Amino acid sequence: MDFIKITEVTEKFGVSSRTLRYYEQVGLLKSERPSFEKYRYYDCENINRLQQILVLRKMQIPIRDILRIYEYQDMETLVQSFVNRMESIDSEINTLSQLKSYVNDFMKAMNEHGITQISALPLLYEKVEEELLSAPKQDLTMEKLNTLSERLAKPLNMDIVALPPMLVITSIKTDNGRSEIESFWDWLSANQIPFGKPGSRTLFEYQSSEDIVLMQKLPEQIANMKGADSLSEECPFECREFSGGLFAVSSAYADEDLRALQHRMLQGFDDNPGYEIDFLHSGSPRHETLIEAVFSPENNRERINLYLPVRQRKPNFTDYPEFETTENTSLDEIEKANTILREYTVDFHKITPVYHPHFQVLENGEAEFIAWISQRKLDTNVAVRLPFRVDIEFFAEEKSEEYLWGTTEGSLWFSHGSCTYTINAENYADNALKQHAIAFQQPVLENEYSYPKIGDIPHDRYNRLTWIVGEKHFAVVLNSQVRFCGVNFPYMNMNLNLQAPQSIIIGTNGQGKKLFRSIKVSQLKTAPKTNTTQGALQMNVKQSNNTLPNLRQIVHGEYGQNYWFNGCAAYVMECLGEQDYDYWLFAGLTGENFVQVYSKDHFRGDGVMDYRMSEPGNHTVVEEIFTKIGYASTFVPLVQILKNKELYIQSLISYIDRSIPVILNDYGKNPHNRFGFGVLVGYEDYGKTLLYMCGGGKEPDRISAADLLTDDYQNETGHCHGWLFIGEKQENRALGEICRERILSLPQMLGYENRHYCFGVKAFRIWADQIDGGYFERVKIGEFNNWDMHTVYVCCLATNSGGCKGFLEKALELNPDMTFINDVIALYAKTGRYWNNDNGTDLEALGGGFNVTLDVLQDEFMRKRIAHKLRDFADCMDQVVTVIERFNAEK
């Protein structure tokens, strides 16, 4: 027989797992869970039945009728269900027809009586009603109109919400007890108390006797500084504590019949199994009906919420199916399925005895407890919510254990909320009547169960007792032996995350002494509850625009952050929650804060990443950077994006909607800037306009997707333009190891050269040779580009001279054995002096720094001095290489 996994069923038929569980609970479906599987499966018969149920539900056949259809299994029942549905439809049509007739009569009456003003409508109704009562249509009265209106009203949708307790001020004057709304509004304004925003649940109105009362929550700073009593002394209006609690909420427009809505809400709880209106013993509700203004989808109509006080009904456990007991379920299996989220060890000194039992903490750290009667107990002062686990290591003294009268003598029990869990229960003085039972109340539903002869406890020895009130199993374990285990309890299918934490209370009964060696209370992990099948709402949640919430400046040049890729990479990591991976870490990993660059042919950018990305097909270098920190990444070249623009724009939209930016190395008709690396941070008009940030910009710029992704793209230089998508974290790498690898591999970068450019030592020497050899003598004044030809290299050496220090110090802190790092720091500091603090012989003083001019570079004497200084930089880098290689050799 073929079986289909429940997850496959939900995906195939578009039905949620919660709905499937409901169908099983009412007896329409049945699933099976093989012993070796964690998932439930449906056979072909149940799959066929599910398809039938879904068809019937789409025709709005009620569940109670579907149950009848399968109960009687005959065509007559099925046909009768369809007949009932058609009669319901006919009734609705008939109601609409009657209402149509009534509206038509009113229109005729308006014409006959010359009604032209809406204010005359009530008078018209009285006139028409008199005429209709004397006519054949005597049933068309206001009462009939109300009935028709109620029958045609849409099903009432209500939510149950919990309003928190709050300190409020009302419009009721303390001197006369009357509500004075206008003066109350003025008082709030004069005292700069902000009015509650629509939907914020801070400003309500309600009707008390004949008065309309406004109730405003006081701001936290005022509520914390002053209580209700002190405020009442200063304020002419009533201040009090609003107790909050559960309320049923429904929405309407303010121009609709609110009294009718309130009536329908009250009626909606007549047969509600979970909640009821919260009436006091006097017969009045716990609080008057609250009204709150909310934002309205229609500008010219005010929208409001109505709040009715409600309380939970005690669940009727007869409405729920029985659970299943299991045999041969191992403790290891139970513990794996009910994971501990947090464990609390009960401090015996912090236990609170209740009703004066005998309780003392002994010198050996154990606790001694005699209750005599079950009302005398111990509050552990440890509170947990469902599901939970309790572990008790205890000693029961046999000589003091006598069963004289009560059924709980000799027991050991604990309570959580209204439910009690007992081992060694139901023991009468008569030996024949001793049950040694395990007894408990099911969580939430509170129905009682007792299992005799499995709860006896050994005496005069220490026992280890465990109760697991879990989401997957309900189990009792004594000395590693599973005494009881049940699954599929009704409470396990409820949303346990909504249950409040309750304190664990320990108890026993009779004169028997119990010694506790340890008590542990554990909060168990719960699975999140979802209400939809995967992908069910994809079409409904497509946004036309979205922008990342945490926009910020990508780099700060004033702090020496001069390389844009590092700022972009750090921003992406910040969005992914990685705080250690900042700009300075990436500047070290890329080498941009260590390595001098120099181009032999044309301008290639500002730093190492620009240079490496200038080589055709070399885009893997950006992916390698993220591999170093354990992240997957994919660089998509622009030529590939242009072949399927819509696909990659949708991919970008998906990333933005998940709050992850995308790095780009740009080419396009950008009207704002000629930028290299930047980050795409948003989109508008379904991706037709893209938002990006680069450099020191504080706000995102906009560019059309057509201008960014131009069809006439021609990559004449072979530069690697494209987008970089950061994927999942694949490896947790220690920060110290990441820094160590970077520093030990620096010699390779500091000696790198190809036919187009070079790094480190060679960069300084070739740069010096070109200046010394008279390269600039051939450059005309109009051709000289200060930045591209010289100053960009000065910026590089100046940045590196101090920018690498933070990375080096962090690496040394995480790798104390790398003491040579102090020598490297000193060498880079020396380059800083060579640049701008060398007793008048530094690069700036020689005219070869940021202040360079073409005249200086063409002057033979001055350019030789500049070239000589650049060779000093090269010597420093040579020494850095030597220091690191010596350490590598020693290792």
UniProtKB/TrEMBL annotation:
<dbReference type="Pfam" id="PF13411">
    <property type="entry name" value="MerR_1"/>
</dbReference>
<dbReference type="InterPro" id="IPR047057">
    <property type="entry name" value="MerR_fam"/>
</dbReference>
<protein>
    <recommendedName>
        <fullName>HTH merR-type domain-containing protein</fullName>
    </recommendedName>
</protein>
<dbReference type="GO" id="GO:0003677">
    <property type="term" value="F:DNA binding"/>
</dbReference>
<keyword id="KW-0238">DNA-binding</keyword>
<dbReference type="InterPro" id="IPR009061">
    <property type="entry name" value="DNA-bd_dom_put_sf"/>
</dbReference>
<keyword id="KW-0805">Transcription regulation</keyword>
<feature type="domain" description="HTH merR-type">
    <location>
        <begin position="1"/>
        <end position="72"/>
    </location>
</feature>
<keyword id="KW-0678">Repressor</keyword>
<dbReference type="InterPro" id="IPR000551">
    <property type="entry name" value="MerR-type_HTH_dom"/>
</dbReference>
<dbReference type="GO" id="GO:0003700">
    <property type="term" value="F:DNA-binding transcription factor activity"/>
</dbReference>
<keyword id="KW-0804">Transcription</keyword>
